[in-house]
Specification:
heterodimer, A: 328 residues, alpha/beta, Rossmann fold, 5-stranded parallel sheet, B: 458 residues, OB fold (Dihydrolipoamide Acetyltransferase, E2P), 3 domains, 7-stranded mixed sheet, globular
């Protein structure tokens, strides 16, 4: 049974504070990344995760050590949520030696074997079979890990997604397909790209169960995640979670987002913001004071500023790095 | 009116087969569609049906006969009441008559005739280790390489279309399902992009996949994962994680399968940093290179050739025999000109060299074996000795491996050249179906002979 947002009574203060802290870290980090992009310190494409924080934070709360995750190019939030160091992520954005890929990957191509984060993929939809492949390996090796395979509503129209659904269900792979439906594939709304707008439902054709989840509510996300994880770990094969979410910023830093109204964005920000939601739960429930939350804000700001300083100070990779890591 | 029943061609590249079993005997009446015999090709045992009605007047080839050439008369059907003596005498079992026929894809008849015995016994490789060898086909060599590596490393597994229960579309994986089971010999749906991606992900998750493409033409559906996912991830991750895996399958033209099934991708994949690219010529190459490929921590594109699958060569029996990457093999030493080739091109180059020897031109034939890395040193040393170079490949001319070699030789050995490097390639056209046009589109030994003479000013 999927829990609904009013799971409030069962949630401890510590748990809520954890979510608050993790979501806030992602938001402040992304705001800083936007700023550094504006200053020319970050180049190329830079896709911000602002607005969607509850999805990764909620699902990470449902995971255990050993579980894997893989996503698209909108990947900074996923990396922070799985415990990768903000400094290493930011330094990769600035293309510096201290970055997770020594500056050779960039915003869209970052990995951490240690944290079981398998990218960061720039080709829309490619991460879907790759994620199923990680799950294939876990099943082959006989452990009970699951792989969270994230993709957007845009990728949901790629053919390889359905090739993967077919094989994932055929072979009972322990993979959770997380569709982050932020309603716009760059500038094309879901309605303008398909008549089959209930995206999780497409899995039913392959025998994969799934559900739509309020992706702006971290508690609902966590509850759905736990259900999906239990399904996978029980050897029942894949599960689809369609997270209804929203990105506040453009597709990338260079997107003016003219395809939607300012009012639409404002309405979501006002009514559905995932961080405000947890803040309300904490303050209205009398679980945390404004002062406590302000202290956390300050702490997060310090982490983000430190990451930005590190990303500016870390040297550019040595020219000799051009020629390394091509072959193992 | 008697009708000859001829040995049928049961696959695009079949040249001969074994008449495994007769299902009719002399005097039997047969109807069209009735199964006459079981015929074993190098890929499968197939049932062979009667086209015409009649009475089996005479069986000309006994069951169990191997090496029966396509189009050899194997039986005579007569009409009711007729006897076989009324039938026109078929030439004595035609194995001899047909043997002179060139393999379909080798154009110039005299040259091809020279090539045939050569291919059968196998040219010695310059660097085969001392020690015992056994004769095996390229197909058997590939199978043995996979089986040995799968026995040695439990994380190696094979995945692809028809690799398991069907025993391999080209029978490369025959028997592997029986030995290793469905966990390690994984039949996939027809979904190249999907399973190439899954295999690449599995390589990051601690396994060593061997992906079989039924042909590399189908790998076009999966090329994004080969390049963007498998080849580039080690670099993009700053060395944290690579893709230890092999993408293998037949590449290039088979015989009469038309434009969409006949393309050589050597130059395409060889252009990509992060990939290793192999193209074996002989069974020894095939076995030694595939073992190296499976053990290699990098993604390897392994380009095979359907026409070569059934050809036999000597292969070292030493289970530790491997062919290292980046090491060309000098197949034949010579002093007047260097012919550089790879894959099936080597057989054309060797045939040309034999013809040239008869005309007093001594050609050195280099088999590159790997196209990334390329053994430039061996090529350059040879060109510095012979001062002339001709490259041979089946692929298209624009942006060919030959183009790259010509450019490299020009930049690194210009002063040694007595003539421009000439590149022999397939013609710059989609592969036609018509037999004569296909022959014309493919590179031939005769063209290599002409090219060599031009660089020798003869």
């Amino acid at each position: 049974m999927a829990k609904k947002p009013d799971a409030r009574p069962n949630v401890s203060k510590e748990e809520l504070l954890k979510y608050y802290r993790e979501m806030l870290l992602i938001r402040r980090f992304e705001e800083k990344a936007g700023q550094l992009y504006g200053m020319g310190l970050i180049g190329g494409f830079c896709h911000l995760y602002i607005g969607q924080e509850a999805v990764v934070v909620g699902l990470e709360a449902a995971s255990k050590e050993g579980d894997k995750r893989i996503t698209s190019y909108r990947d900074h939030g996923h990396m922070l949520a799985c415990g990768m160091d903000a400094k290493g992520v930011m330094a990769e954005l600035t293309g510096r030696e201290g970055g997770y890929s020594k500056g050779k990957g960039g915003s869209m191509h970052m990995f951490s074997k240690e944290k079981h984060f398998y990218g960061g993929h720039g080709i829309v939809g490619a991460q879907v079979p790759l994620g199923a492949g990680l799950a294939f390996a876990d099943k082959y090796l006989g452990n009970d890990n699951v792989t969270f395979t994230y993709f957007g509503d845009g990728a949901a129209n790629q053919g390889q997604v359905y090739e993967t659904y077919n094989m994932a269900e055929l072979w009972d792979l322990p993979v959770i397909f997380v569709i982050e439906n932020n309603q716009y594939a760059m500038g094309t709304s879901v309605k303008r790209s398909t008549k089959s707008t209930t995206l999780f439902g497409r899995g039913l054709a392959y025998g994969i169960p799934g559900e739509q989840v309020d992706g702006m509510d971290v508690l609902a996300v966590k509850a759905a995640g736990e259900k999906a994880v239990a399904h996978c770990r029980a050897g029942k094969g894949p599960y689809i979670l369609e997270m209804m979410t929203y990105r506040y910023r453009g597709h990338s830093m260079s997107d003016p987002a003219k395809y939607r109204t300012r009012e639409e964005v404002e309405k979501i920000k006002t009514e559905k913001d995932c961080i405000e939601h947890v803040r309300d739960l904490l303050t209205q429930g009398g679980l945390a004071s404004d002062e406590e939350l302000k202290a956390i804000d300050k702490e997060i700001k310090a982490i983000v500023n430190e990451s930005a300083e590190f990303a500016k100070d870390s040297p550019e990779p040595a020219l000799s790095e051009l020629w390394t890591d091509i072959y193992a | 009116m008697a009708t000859e029943v001829l040995m049928p061609a049961l696959s695009p590249t079949m040249e001969e087969g074994t008449l495994a079993k007769w299902l009719v005997k002399e005097g039997d009446t047969v109807k069209s569609g009735q199964i006459l015999a079981e015929i074993e090709t190098d890929k499968a045992t197939m049932e062979f049906e009667a086209v015409d009605e009649g009475v089996v007047g005479k069986i000309l080839v006994a069951e169990g006969t191997a090496g029966v050439k396509v189009n050899t008369p194997i039986a005579v059907l007569v009409e009711d009441g007729e006897t076989v003596s009324d039938a026109p005498k078929p030439a004595a079992v035609a194995a001899v008559a047909v043997a002179a026929e060139a393999p379909a894809t080798v154009a110039a008849a005299p040259v091809a005739a020279a090539a045939a015995p050569v291919a059968a016994s196998g040219w010695p490789h310059s660097d085969l280790p001392e020690g015992p060898t056994k004769t095996m086909t390229v197909r058997e060599a590939l199978r043995e390489a996979m089986a040995e590596e799968m026995r040695a490393d439990p994380t190696v597994f094979l995945m692809g279309e028809e690799v398991g229960e069907y025993q391999g579309a080209y029978k490369i994986s025959q028997g592997l399902l029986d030995e290793f089971g469905p966990r390690r010999v994984v039949d996939t749906p027809i979904t190249e992009m999907g399973f190439a991606g899954i295999a690449t992900g599995a390589s990051w998750g601690g396994l060593k996949p061997i992906v079989e493409f039924m042909t590399f033409n189908f790998a076009m559906q999966a090329i994004d994962h080969i390049l963007n996912s498998a080849a580039k991830t080690l670099y993009m991750s700053g060395g944290q994680m690579g893709s230890p895996m092999v993408f293998r399958g037949p590449n290039g033209a088979a015989a009469r399968v038309g434009a969409q099934h006949s393309q050589d991708y050597a130059a395409w994949y060889a252009a990509i940093p992060g990939l290793r690219v192999c193209m074996p010529y002989s069974a020894a190459d095939a076995k030694g290179l595939l073992k190296s490929a499976i053990r290699d921590p990098n993604p390897v594109v392994f380009l095979e050739n359907e026409i070569m699958y059934g050809r036999s060569f000597e292969v070292p029996t030493d289970p530790d025999f491997v062919v290292p990457f980046g090491k060309a093999s000098i197949m034949r030493a010579g002093s007047d000109v260097t012919i550089v080739s790879f894959g099936i091109g080597v057989s054309h180059a060797l045939a040309a060299a034999e013809t040239l020897a008869g005309e007093g031109i001594s050609a050195e034939v280099i088999n590159l074996r790997t196209l990334r890395p390329i053994d430039y040193d061996t090529v350059l040393a040879s060109v510095m000795k012979t001062n002339r170079c001709v490259t041979v490949e089946e692929g298209f001319p624009v942006g060919s491996i030959g183009d790259h070699l010509a450019s490299t030789i020009m930049q690194r050995a210009f002063d040694y050249l007595d003539a421009p490097v000439v590149t022999c390639t397939g013609k710059d056209v989609p592969m036609p179906y018509a037999a004569n046009l296909e022959k014309f589109a493919l590179i031939t030994p005769a063209e290599i002979v002409t090219a060599v003479k031009s660089v020798c000013y003869r």
